Amino acid sequence: DGGRFAVGVSAKDNEFGDNAGAVYVYEHTAAGWELDARVVTPDLGYGASFGRAVALDGDRMIVSSGVPTALSMAGTVHAFERTSLRRWVEVDRFQAPTPLAFDFFGESLALEDGRALVSARLGDGALTTAVYVYAFTRSGVEIRQALPQAVPPGAHVLNNSAMDLGSGFAIVGESLHGANVGTEASFVDVYRVAPARGRVGTVKSR
Question: Are 189 and 203 contacting, i.e. CB atoms less than 8 angstroms apart?
């Protein structure tokens, strides 16, 4: 984003344990790209996979991890803001509205203008996926809506696809499913952002 980018290294071994993970933020200077910050959280542990997905927008960043919870592989998203002292501070963390084991919540992330898109697989063996819309507020990060299901009912979902968010629209790649395992084409869903309400999905095309 501009003169800054962030890299997640989810398999990084460090003082928190093997595969605890970390995020590295780089800034563009007169000398080129230089490391500006290493971002972690103090409660990381073995296999946390912090940095599995990262999205950056100015002084805000969201990072997904497998930080242990009561539900295996449910997934957690961490929200950070950059302070005037050039430190990244965790301001919130959250899971899916109804967490399920093997949700892999946050497998794909996008962030723009205070809005975030977060994907989930909807549990172990589920036949569908979901994308949730969140917004940064003064009290933290709050959910705004769930996008309409992109994958046809009964389709065999293998994994989440990439997505991105612009100032006026969002694009979501449909996960690989039964309809396109063979010769059928994959799809990209395009949603229009409604600025007045901060919602996504007033228009969808494929």
Answer: no
